[in-house]
Amino acid sequence: MITLLKDLYAQFDLLYSDILFTCKGCSDHDCEGYIWLMPEESDILAEKDISVVVLNGNCNLINPFEESSLTPTDFERMRPKCRLRYAGLCSIYSSRPLVCRMYPVGLTSQDGNATFVLFKDCKFVRDMTIDQKIKFTNRAIAILSDCSQKLYDEIVETYLNMDVLSKYPDGANKYEVLNANR
């Protein structure tokens, strides 16, 4: 049973052990948007001098806003670029948050309920063979199913706190539902 966030990190790191090669050649919008953080991730990143924003007292995210008095803060921007990605690679890769470690597994919501999904827009997923995708999907479901109820609920709650504040551009993403829900 996975009870700690660091153990969940390790499981996703194993699942994605070969993703960096794909990321280097990617020009998709994967590393854009509001990067939500689990509560303990905010503290870890702040200690590393990564700017973290807290909205509504319960929604933590990597600061996506321009740091200039000449540029007004744009809370309506749908896809702010991750300020921590350079030349196609994450500058905080070893400290990246859960949402980044999970992608292209992610969450989506409908009517206030969150569902784990596999985003099919990701180059990593698009490059998989059918057999690779089946193995990958089964492993992702097993990881999520092995989470303690407490950790699972905390992830979902954290996501939903951000989801109510976000806008999604140009319609829904392409995804398939992972049957890891409880």
Topology:
Elements: H1 5-15, H2 19-24, E1 36-37, H3 39-47, E2 52-55, E3 59-62, E4 85-86, E5 89-90, H4 98-102, E6 105-110, E7 113-119, H5 123-126, H6 130-145, H7 149-163, E8 175-177
Antiparallel strand pairs: 1-3, 2-3, 4-5, 6-7, 7-8
Could you name the key traits of this structure?
8 strands, three-stranded antiparallel sheet, 182 residues
Care to give the gist of this entry?
Helices cover 36% and strands 16% of the residues.
Give your account of this protein's structure.
It is a single chain. The protein is of the alpha+beta class. It has one domain (5-177). Helices cover 36% and strands 16% of the residues. The strands form three sheets. It has a three-stranded antiparallel sheet. It starts with a helix and ends in a 5-residue tail after the last strand.
Oligomeric state:
single chain
List unreliable stretches of 5+ residues: none
- Structural class by secondary-structure content: alpha+beta
Instruction: Outline the biggest β-sheet.
Output: 3 strands, antiparallel
Q: What percentage of residues falls in helices of 4 or more residues?
A: 25-40%
**How many domains make up the coordinates?**
1
C-alpha geometry: globular
Question: How many β-strand runs?
Answer: 8
